[in-house]
Amino acid sequence: MAHGIPPGLVMIAVLALAVRLAYLWEIQSIPFFGHPIGDAASYTAWAERIAGGDWMGSEAFYQAPAYPYFVAVTRLAFGASPWAIRIVQCVLGATACVAVAVSGWWLLGRGAGMAAGVILALYAPAIFFDGLVQKASLGLWLMALLLVVLAWIVRVAQAEPPQETRRTLGALGGSGESGQPKTPALARLCLHWLGAGVLLGLLALTRENALLLLVPVLVWVWVRKGEGGVGVRLLWSVAFAGGMAIALLPVGLRNHRVGGEFAITTVQAGPNFYIGNNKSATGRYVPMRRGHESPPFERAEAEAIASEALGRVLAPGEASDYWWSQSFDFIRNHPGRWLTLLGTKWLLVWNVYEVPDTESYYLYCAWSPVLGVLGTMFHFGVLCPLAAIGVVLTWPRRRELWLLYVLILTVAVGVAVFYVVARYRYPLVPLLALFAGAGLARAYAVLRGRSRQSVVAPLGVGLCCAIIVNWPINPARQLNAMAYMNVGAVLAQQGKLDAAIKFFDLALEGAPESAELHYNLGVALASKERYEDAVRHYRTALEIEPGLMHADYNLGVAFEALCRVDEAVEHYRRALTVDPEDAGARGALQRLSPGSVRE
Fold it and tell me: Can you give the pTM of this predicted structure?
C-alpha cells in the first residue's frame, strides 16, 4: 500500500457507505427516526445542552460522555436534522470497514483483510447500529482505529532490519550492537503507542469496560519478542498509558470539579454491575424499578435506593460503591447461583440473537428490505462460525496473533460480568471479522488448489460453533414485543392512535403477560373513547401487577366516562393507596364523593 490507496479498499468504502445510505432512506418513516426515545432521547437532549454552550455540565458523568459530545459537535457542524448524525455515522462506519480491512491485510494477509472489510461492510447489525442515535457506532469506529494502530506497530517492528532495530533501541536497554539510536524511528513508534493509548481512552469514554483492554495490550508489550530490553518496553508502556491519560485525565478532573469525585469515566459502574449480578438478574437488562428504564430515572433510582438503605444522602460515587457491595454480597452468599448466572451470560454473549435495548434490530429488519435481506446472510450466527474457522486455520501463527485472541476474550468477559445487550458485545465484531476474513481467504485458497492445508478440523470446529451460537436460548418473541410496544408508545405520543393500537396488539402476541403493555393499550383505547376495551386492559394489567402506578387512576377515569361512578370512586381510592400524592385521584374523589378525602 505504499503507492496510493488500493482500489479494493476504495470499493469496500463505497460498498459500505452505499448500503448504509440506502438503509437510512428506507427507515426514515420509522417513528423513532425523528422522535428519539430511551438513551437516544437522553443523548440528544445532552448534546443540545452542550451545543447550546453548556460544555462543562453540573454533575459527575453517569453515562459515558464521548458520544453526546460527538453528537453536539456534529450538530454544530451540520445542523440538528435527524439525518445529520446518521449520515456522519454511516461515513464513520464505512471508514471502520476500511480500517478493519487494512488491519487484516497487515496482520493476516491481503485476502483476509479484504474479506474482513467486506464482511463488516455488509454485516447487518453494523448497518443497524450506524443508523441509530446510539454510541455503538462511535465505539466500533474507535475499536477499528485502535486495531489499525496496533497492526501498524507490528508492521513497523517487522519491517525494520534487526540490526537497525537494535541500534535504535540499544541506548534504552536493548541488547545487541551499540550505537546512536535512530531518533526518527524511535519517535515514530512512541507516537504510535501514544495514539493507541488515546484511542483506547476515548473508547473507554464510549464503553467503560474497554478499560480492561489495557491489561492484554501491556502484557503484549512486555512479552512479545523483538521489542528490546526493559527500557524500551517501559518507554512503550509509558507512551501508551500517557495516551490514555490524555483522554481520561480531563474527564476525571472535570468530574471532580463539578461533582466533587475523581472518576475517570463515569459513576455508573456499580449500578450496572448490580443489574447483572443479583438474585433477580436474568443476564439481560432489568430496571431497578419497573417502568423506570430511562437514563434520568436510572440515575435517580440508583442513588435514591442506596441513600434510603444507608440512611443518608449519598454522593454518586458512594451510591456506586453501595451497589458494588450489594453485588459482591450476592456473589459471596450464593456462589453456585452466581456461577450459573455467569454461564448464562457467557452463552448470551455468544448467541445469534441481538438482545434489544430500547430499539430492536429485528424491528428494523422488518421495516427495511435492505437490512432484512442482509440480515439473513450476514449476522452473528454466521460471523462467529467463520471466525472460529479462521482461528483454527491461523493457529500455527498463534505466537504472532495471540493478542487478537486475548482481546476477543477480554471484550467478551467484560460484557458477561455485567449484563448482555447487543450493543455491549458489538466491539467484538471487528475482531471476529478479522478471523472470519482469514477463514474465507484460506478456504478460497484451498478451493483454488493454492493451499494443501486440511480443512476438516476447521470445518468441524465451525460446525460445532454454528450449532452453539444459533441455539435458541433467548425469549425472542417476548423481547421483540417490547420493541413493538415502544413503537406504539411513540405513535401514541404523535397522536397516531390507530397505528399505535395496532403495534400494541402486535406486541401482546409476543408478551401477553406484560402489565405495561396492557396498560399502554388501555391508555390508547381510552384516548379513542373505547372505554369498555380500555377497562378490560387496565384490569388485566392490575391482575398481572397489582399496584401498577397510574393504572387504578386511569381505570377510574374510564369508569367515570362510562357513568359507573361507584366503580370509579373505588379505583380513585385505590390509586391514592398506591400514590398518596396523586393529585388527579384526590381531585376526582372530592368531586365525586365530597368529604371522603381528608385534606
Answer: 0.88
